[in-house]
Specification:
3 copies of one chain form a homotrimer. By secondary structure, chain A is α/β, with parallel strands linked by helices. Chain A contains 5 helices and 40 strands. Chain A has an 11-stranded parallel sheet with strand order 8-11-14-17-20-25-28-31-34-37-39, with no helix packed on it. In chain A, strands 9-12-15-18-21-26-29-32-35-38 form a 10-stranded parallel sheet, with no helix packed on it. In chain A, strands 10-13-16-19-24-27-30-33-36 form a 9-stranded parallel sheet, with no helix packed on it.
Chain lengths: 346, 346, 346
């Protein structure tokens, strides 16, 4: 993909506060991996292990860390954090799309909604009573905002996001298509062989600079609110149940499910396909390996795991048979101990 | 959250058939947990373990079970099922929203659809030929109902639900945003290195008083129908494959997947993140622990589990290494048995 | 379900290239399982194990494999691949719906979009600038196509599919409701305790004859493209992360998540609820059992598994306790070995 205009290496270095070595006027129109980048593109080395690829790259410039500053003769940008530098340069080359302010005539807007003049409301949108939409916010085609929803400035809703009544989205947060915020939590009381629905009267409060992936769901609180703090990043297809709190800057990978009332600390990294039971407290700085299950609160930062990598089917079946036979092996082991004890005593 | 009007404790007790102790005219405008409730709010004690919190609550009234009837000096409601009583009182305080009857002018309705006068059809809705919508049903913004869909009375579709042709939703059922009912089941026949699509000609039949969480999917049957019986509660992000039958009042937590043609009995409780392979029969009254896998039919009620809770990463890696070495430990154990046998015989 | 017209057995045999035995003029209006089919319907035997059911069927005709060609006195179609023959006959009896060409007046179409005259654009659709839609393609109600999206001829989008800018869908592919193609991949760089978003500038390229189930998501590439090759079949609620490549004719069952940059070969069969970590290479012809985790590249075709079937809860808890005690049992075993060694030496 080619940027709409070229930038000098000097311009790009300013985007990330990096230092330029070599020709600062080198013009860049694109970005690529070490292997795929071509002339006119900038590439990046974030791991010295790939220095070999660096020598073969066809890119016109490269982003490097301090320890690799002389690893290439190409015009280059040296940064303490080359990966973040790449991210900021890519943002400069490929700025987020800028929506045209205004309300599409097909949108259905309640008269009491307050929409900032610089906001953009797309086609087929429905906006309920008392909604407040901040400056520069974008509501993509087909989104539905319930009564009293608040979008901070610069919020970006991709097409077909639904936000139920009363929920709040912080400034600059990005919600991808199919996201559902504020649906009822899964709350019901057993009664005479059936279930009585418990009204879910809490809200969902989402902080600033949050990003939520496609088809992820965050349920509203039963009584109190479900809270996603600032800077949290949620991947696709995640389920966050009612009354959860996700601490600032925590990231959660796809297909993970967090049960009700669990609180996850700040700066955690939760893998994909993880499950957490309800009512847990996970402290700051916890990493959970993908495909693991958390059933108890965690009070110490660190990495927690219960996932099992696959093996060839027959090997795994043998392992599994032995696993299930463990109680009987343990019994045998104990019998042997006694036998040996006797033999020793003889 | 405050109710739109206050209710006397006497009014609320009637909602759940409870007995009032203390001042029956106490006015209540909200509901809260033992810790969070304040003046003008009612709280509830559903587990005697939390009696300590009861003594500190700032609530104006409390819901209790018979064994705790005198555990508080506050005005109170005593109920045989205090949790269900709380649910019913919350419903009284916070009644489900009542949609205004009528069809929004932006909705696209086939001429042959029959819509009850008291039903409410929101903006941007598309309704196909021959659809029948019962009294008091609500079709939220952006929903799409295929040809011949039937909604019973009082059905509530939140925004952006899709129901494919021919499916039926029973009275008072609630479908949350992003739900897709009646998409094609995953059926195809292998042929010459590729796949031939098998038309999915069954429907989805959903009983009365079912609730289905956000972004859950229920596929139509291949030949016969997929059936969700009355009172079933499905959480978010669940996948029910073609030809399944879920028995009445069974509840399934989020992120669970049920493979094709599996039949689950009545009053089962299936945890979150569970998997079930296809063509199983699960009897009534089965509980499956979260994150477990069911591969065989179950004929006895009870709890079934295969999930593994996480440990610190290094501990788990050691366990895993031992697990994989099991065949070799078992071999050693057998060798030791023989050695000891020989020693004994000497 | 009854077909809109009757077909002779001869007509149906032509649909799959099968041989007719018995009365070729037998009229068929429907299809059913061996147990459920009635008069006027055709059934099928794809596994000789069910011959008993064949003898009891009330169907008017049956599809059989060569080894069962004389297993029934009914009028019948003999095919080398009776299951694929059933699929093709079902397609003949129940042809895929045929949309009426034209653009619904409520659709919002950018002036620069090019829509083939025979395509069908439903109500409430939004189509961006530069979109190209092929002959006979169907865009269901509420779909949103971003700028520059391309749909091949005969593509079928069910209601409420979203395709982000620049993505391409190959001819005859079917995308079910709630599918999101081309949302941003989960890419961000850690920086000063927070995260910097990495622009996702790749696309999603989907080949011909692909089918994608309800609420499945496929993210756009970070730099290069995410690719789904021809003939791939994805079930519901699947997550395919950025930069993945799924090889031709591979099938993936529901609720599976594939992490970024993983490449799966051709003709693989991936079960439901599977997880794959990122940056793997899975060769052609691999089968992964449901609920298994793949953490390493696979270079040999075959079946790979790590799933654990449930047991009664108490049994499993005992097994789990033994599993966790393994390091201590292994220690004991080693001590016994030494003891025996000593005893032997005495």
């Amino acid at each position: 993909m080619e940027a709409t205009r070229a930038y000098s290496l000097k311009d790009l270095a300013e985007a990330c506060g990096g230092e330029v070595l070599g020709d600062a006027q080198t013009l860049i129109r694109g970005i690529g991996t070490l292997e795929q980048a071509g002339p006119g593109e900038i590439t990046f080395l974030t791991n010295s292990l790939y220095r070999d690829l660096l020598h073969k790259t066809r890119a016109s410039a490269v982003i490097l860390g301090p320890s690799d500053r002389n690893a290439s003769p190409l015009p280059r940008i040296v940064s303490d954090n080359p990966y973040a530098c790449y991210a900021r340069i890519a943002q400069r080359l490929f700025p987020f799309p800028h929506a045209v302010p205004g309300v599409h005539p097909s949108a259905v807007i309640a008269p009491t909604a307050r929409i900032a003049p610089s906001a953009s409301i797309g086609p087929q949108v429905t906006i309920g009573a008392g909604v407040v939409i901040g400056e520069g916010a974008v509501v993509g085609p087909g989104c539905v905002l319930g009564e009293g929803v608040t979008l901070g400035e610069g919020v970006w809703l991709y097409p077909r996001v639904v936000i139920y009544a009363g929920c709040e989205i912080g400034a600059r947060s990005i919600l991808h298509s199919g996201v559902v915020i504020g649906a009822d939590g899964f709350g019901m009381a057993p009664d005479r062989g059936g279930w009585v629905k418990i009204p879910q009267i809490g809200r969902v409060l989402i902080g600033a600079d949050v990003e939520i992936g496609a088809n992820t769901t965050v349920d509203r609180g039963a009584i109190e609110d479900t809270v996603i703090e600032e800077g949290v990043k949620l991947d696709n297809q995640i389920q966050i149940a009612h009354n959860c709190r996700i601490g600032a800057h925590t990231v959660i990978a796809g297909c993970t499910g967090i049960s009700g009332s669990t609180r996850i600390g700040r700066n955690c990294r939760i893998g994909g396909g993880v499950g957490m039971v309800g009512h847990l407290e996970i402290c700051d700085g916890v990493t959970v390996s993908g495909f693991s299950l958390i059933t108890k609160s965690i009070t110490q930062p660190g990495v927690y795991t219960s996932s099992i990598p696959s093996q060839p089917h027959r090997t795994w079946m043998e392992t599994l048979a032995n696993l299930r036979a463990l109680p009987q092996w343990v019994k045998k082991l104990k019998a042997l101990e006694q036998d040996i004890q006797k033999l020793k005593e003889e």
